[in-house]
Amino acid sequence: SDEETLSTLLQNKLAIAAPLAVALMPLEAGAAEGSSGGGGGQIASAFAAYGHYLSLFIIVGCLVTERLTVKANMSDEEEDRLAIADTTLGISGALLAYTGYLRTTAEWGKGFDYYAHEPVFWVKLLFVAIFGAVSFFPTTKIIQRSVAKRSGNMVPMSEELAARMTSLINAELLMVASIPLTASLMARGVGYMPNFPWQVGAGATVAALGGLGFKYVKEALDWQEPAAAAPVAKVDE
Q: 205 pLDDT band (50/70/90 cuts)?
């Protein structure tokens, strides 16, 4: 049911985020030590930066894999590949968000007070929010299809669904490609405004993630495949 699919989606996100946050807690400790002038802050900064860049590379790889895999009437192997890529994408997204949080708020960085008054920083977060919201549609459909596949009720992916998922994956790639540009600009202080009201940027980011996220989850749950589609029958060899 739609409720079960949504519950599975939320459980998967929490299952990814919780252990990842626990595993990366030493980085936060290193960030606190950095303010005392010790070497721990430099090490934590290096690992946070490495995790941030690595997660972005993996996200791009997962999106390209999904883009090249999604099509109508996929085989079981392709369906599994799509599910693995999306799961890896979720883990990498959680790592990207967590390391980004550390790099924004830690004492060994420029600090949140700097980024809060940098409009380009909020543009970057807006792109990240849109990317995350758009990803809810493919993730929801992939979870639904994985559940249906295990129960033997999966229908072949239609041309309409494949086209919709392809267009949304393209949008995700566009958002991800925009992140390094905004990161380069904000790191150099382009557009910095000491009096910029950070509440404006935060409000736009939250509104984009919440509003678009709800829209795409609802669209995925309400999606109906053409009536002509029939369940994929498994042939015993």
A: very high
What lies within 8 Å, CB to CB, of 180 at 6+ separation is 56
pLDDT attached to residue 73? 93
pLDDT at position 25 is 43
Q: Are 175 and 131 in contact (CB under 8 A)?
A: yes
Pick from 176, 162, 208: nearest CA to 62: 176
Distance of alpha carbon 74 from alpha carbon 113, whole angstroms = 49
Helices (H), the chain: 2-23, 25-34, 40-69, 76-105, 112-116, 119-151, 159-187, 198-222
Q: Running DSSP on this structure, what letter comes out for residue 38?
A: -
**CA trace torsion 49, 51, 53, 55 (10° rounding):** -160
pTM as predicted: 0.79
**What is the DSSP secondary-structure string of 168-200?**
HHHHHHHHHHHHHHHHHHHHTTTT--TT--HHH
DSSP conformational letter for 154: P
Instruction: Kindly state the DSSP code that residue 110 receives in the 8-state scheme.
Output: S
Neighbouring CB atoms inside 10 A of 55's CB total 21
The 3-state DSSP class for residue 107 equals: coil
The CA-based angle 16-91-203, given to 5 degrees, is 85
Phi, psi of 137 (to 5 degrees): -65, -55
